[in-house]
Amino acid sequence: MNLIVLIIISAIILITAYYTYGKYVSKKLGVDNSNITPSNTLEDGIDYVPTKSPIVLGHHFASIAGAGPIIGPVIAVAFGWIPAVIWIIIGGVFFGAVHDMASMLASLRHKGKSIGYVIEKQIGAKGKVLFLIFSFSTLILIVGVFADIIAKTFINNPSVASSSILFIILAVVFGVVNKALKNSKYAFVITSIIGVVLMYFFVYLGKFIPINIGYNLWVIILLGYAFIASVTPVTLLLQPRDYLTSYLLYGLIIAAVIGIFIANPEVKMDNDIVFKSPDLGYIFPVLFVTVACGAISGFHSLVASGTTSKQLNKESDAKIVGYGGMLIETFLAILSVIAVMVISREEYVSQLLNHGPVSLFADGLGKIIAAIGISKQMATSFVALTVSAFALTTLDTCTRLARFTFQEYFDDKEHSTIKKVGANRYIATTVVILSSIVLLSTGEFDVLWPIFGSANQLLAALALLAIAVWLIKKRINASFVLIPMYVMFAVALSSLCLFAITNYQNGTYILAILAGALFLLAIVLLWLAKNSLKREQLHQDFNIPGKNEDLGMIKSKNKNL
């Protein structure tokens, strides 16, 4: 396969999908700008803030991308680049982009609340509690793990730490200036150009002012930053930082594409399809779990229904931000596969084992980008810095999302004091940070992280389940959501089952129990969804009032009728 041909075909498919299938999904979801978005009806200057679509796209893309569409596809090439590319494209167009956009629309129609709230309204309070506990635990895991990863990255690359701190300062200044000049016609364009130029300059400047401090201090600083990013107005730090940082990845993608056209690098990776990897297992379900963010990721539903939905100025923005944002990430995943197609399988296995997927990606893409006329060392460093910068966006976004999840748990509490305390953003964020510190201090995330891939895909299946129930109750043909939902349940449940059996046989009982618990969680939520749809059908068939009645009571009334 010629890489130029591969990149052109992939781009054509994704662009065509945006204007065709994206339009179809928008129509099925009933996107209508006459519906006033929560950012306008509930504007509070903190979380609910109506924002221009380019800024929301930058925030959303930076938040969902992270290192996921890089690490997953690189590892998935163990099964062969052909199945990896096929699943990335099919998954991105028909699964991931649909999942992200539908999560966003469902949230917009439910006061900008999370998928957990949608589950409560469409499936029931028990379903909400189960989902929120699962989501909160997953987010705490991500916060703890990424704080550890970033701290170690900063220790090994002090210049990356310097550049990252400069990015944060720049973001705050950008946010303040943009807010002050929001009524100026050309202010946003001018400040964006200046901000992006300064950001790239800080990439260069960072190597001259490296910061060398210890691991524990870095963890404290990072979690302190995450706390501030969670409680401050979204326009002050989180939004502008993600927006500016997204241009690092846009620049990376553009540089890589230009490099491919200039150098037309030779494909050294073989065309073999490996149905069973000695290290990973069988291609199904492992390939689908491993690619994750490059095709579909449950974490995206938390971002789409968490921070992003609270910023959309109008419903039509959901297409570019939700559907379009996922397709950009899909294209990045294709580049991740290309980065390892330029080496042989023997080199791939050796480098993956000894240096890890991020290093392999940086080295492979660095060689390609160097074709545009910069040194390979500088190109490789730029790729590594971009990955690190996006890991930081995942940290601060996850902290805010965990805060939302904690607050929503207390939404329906009758006791006013408990409800007030649980809804306080400072208290909620403190709980998130302290939980992450406990996780970091015990080191348990090293044990729990392997199960995250399966849990992430289960999260996607559950989000699609909530959306499907919502659409069915609105008398909308939900097949475009149901088909991806069935596939993701098959992937997630198969993976969890295999994971539980393997770890039980290896004596790792804690992972076996966790996998079994997640499997049961999915079954319970499916059962609750089925009962919810039965209740809805009986209400409609017999015009029985009382939406919150249980199924037994409705059947009893049915008999009386």
Automatic annotation (TrEMBL):
It comes from the Bacteria. Keywords: Cell membrane, Membrane, Transmembrane, Transmembrane helix. One of its GO terms (cellular component) is plasma membrane. It comes from Zunongwangia atlantica 22II14-10F7. Residues 4-349, 353-494 form the CstA N-terminal domain. It is found in: Cell membrane. GO terms for biological process: cellular response to starvation. It holds the Pfam family CstA. The chain crosses the membrane at residues 6-22, 61-79, 85-108, 129-147, 159-177, 186-205, 217-237, 244-262, 282-299, 320-343, 423-441, 447-472, 479-501, 507-529. This is Carbon starvation protein csta. InterPro entries: CstA (IPR051605), CstA_N (IPR003706). It is a multi-pass membrane protein. Belongs to the peptide transporter carbon starvation (CstA) (TC 2.A.114) family.
